[in-house]
Amino acid sequence: MGRFSSWLANWIGSGALAIYSLSPVLAGILLGAFWQIFVIFGLHWGLVAIMINNVSTTGFDIINPLIFAASFAQTGIVFGIFLKTKNKKLKSISLPAAISGIFGVTEPAIYGITLPRKKMFIYSCIVAGIFGGLIGFAGTKLYFMGGLGIFGYTTFIGKAGLDSSVWIAVLATALALIVGLIVGYIVHSDKNEQEQEVSDSKDSKTKDVTSPINGETELQHIVKDDFVKAPLSGDMIKLEQVNDPVFSSLAMGKGIAIKPTSNTIIAPFDATVESLFPTGHAIGLKSKHGTELLIHIGIDTVKLDGQGFKALVNQGDTVVAGQPLIEFDSQIIQKQNFDDTVMIVVTNSNITKDVIIESKAHFNKQDDLFAIIY
Question: Which positions fall inside the PTS EIIC type-1 domain (predicted)?
């Protein structure tokens, strides 16, 4: 899977250069619109390698400017939602996500806000495509590698100094932010949020349970709608303490992290494999009760491009509790200076009444992990 994703990323990069030679505007529209989708599947790292190679061999890169508006469009959408919503929880996670987006870190915005609200994600891609086309029209180039977000503008300044291509890029990103904000504000509706919550919980058979578990309480005695077992063995880490703001901010949802002492991820319940990253470092499951669970192995391990990971199932498979899903090599992960902490997150916890986590310092695989209350 790792080799396939590398090949696909190279193909996308070569295709983008070919389209740019025919029409910079069309290349900007396509790359701008699809960039955030590439981020979700980890394909953007292959394009980053092409950008670096372009700068080192030709002295400039034309791909990076075309995707530059994407983070601003995403951020604008989230700012619009923040200004519109009366939902305290949504407001509390949308502002930090928007601030991160200003600096080019869009994962909290994507996974925590727009992707769960699919229409918002689609609108952000459309806005990014429009203003990616404008940047393509300007012929903006990148002269040295830097970040996205507001710190990226300086990378467009060549020996000639500030020219029209730089100013048009600034204008395009400002417009992407403003248009995204307007779209987010107009399209978002708290009524839709409430209707979704009612729809997802109308068959609930439980009462509200909000008190945390203590060491003397056994999780299985709690009235629950769904139940999650530990998918691996290891030491418990609070999700808020992991070294990744995408997870520690709880933008992805409530959950737990485990420092692994075993190297196989097993199914924590009977489920359908909803998503499986090509790199094998993350898997999304959905239980028969509707619980959506993300198991993410390591921090920034998408950069390993599949090295050290072996998927044992395919997307769309039906799995049973205890079935092996992914094998991973902690030694390979750590030798490459990555953190091998495994995050286990209920990605639709925004529609739950509570996610009640077992209070233990160490879990063995198939131990009680947490209960989901709908």
Answer: 1-199
State whether 131 and 80 are in the same domain.
yes
Distance of alpha carbon 180 from alpha carbon 126, whole angstroms: 9
Q: Both 186 and 328 in a single domain?
A: no
Examine residue 203 and state whether it is found in any structural domain, yes or no. no
Tokens 């950008």 -> residue? 51
258, 363: one domain: yes
Give a yes or no: residue 250 inside a domain: yes
**296 tagged catalytic:** yes
Place of tokens 């619109």: 33
pTM, entire model: 0.58
Residue 241 and residue 172 share a domain? no
Which of helix, strand or coil describes residue 371? strand
Please give the span between the terminal C-alpha atoms of the chain, in angstroms, as a whole number. Answer: 36
- For 94-151, the pLDDT digits (tens) are 888 888 888 887 878 887 889 888 899 999 999 999 999 999 999 999 998 876 788 8
DSSP string, 210-268: -SPP-TTS-GGGS--SEEEE-SS-EEEE-GGGSS-HHHHT-SS-EEEEEEESSSEEE-S
User: Is residue 199 over pLDDT 50?
Assistant: no
* 231 and 368 share one domain: yes
For the record, the structure tokens of 350 come out as 């925004």
In a domain, 209, yes or no: no
List the one residue out of 91, 108, 102, 167 whose CA is nearest residue 135.
Answer: 167
* Secondary structure (DSSP) of 23-72: -HHHHHHHHHHHHHHHHHTTTHHHHHHHHHHHHHHHS-BSHHHHHHHHHH
CA dist., res. 46 & res. 334, Å (int) = 22
Out of 140, 163, 190, pick the residue that ends a domain: 190
The one-letter code for the residue type at 367 is D
221-243 burial, b if ≥16 CB within 10 A, otherwise e?
ebebbbbbbbbbbbebbebeebe
Which of 281, 289, 296, 362 is catalytic? The answer is 296
Q: How many domains does the chain have?
A: 2
User: Do residues 112 and 249 lie in contact, with contact meaning Cβ atoms separated by under 8 Å?
Assistant: yes
Examine residue 125 and state whether it is found in any structural domain, yes or no.
yes
Residue with tokens 């290349």: 27
